[in-house]
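The data are quoted verbatim for reference:
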Amino acid sequence: MIGAMVNRGRRGFLERSTKRFQENAERAGPSAAASYSLIGAILMLGGIGYLVDRWCGTSHWFLLAGLVLGLIVGFYQLARTVWRK
């Protein structure tokens, strides 16, 4: 009898914990996506700048421009997500 009550208590705790975890993950989703887009924009545009530098045989000006443009685009996406709330 006592063992059954303990099992029900554990199951209730796990159900509540799982529900709270899912709610927190759903609320954090847009912020996580915005942070991933920030990192992705920097890496993608920086990589394109690097490839253009190698193709043209120039110094690292296109890489620098790609990184700056990636920062601008990424922070724009982050700001849109934050201000939407």
In short: The chain has one domain: 2-84. Residues 10 and 16 are 10 Å apart (CA to CA). The helical segments are 2-56, 61-84.
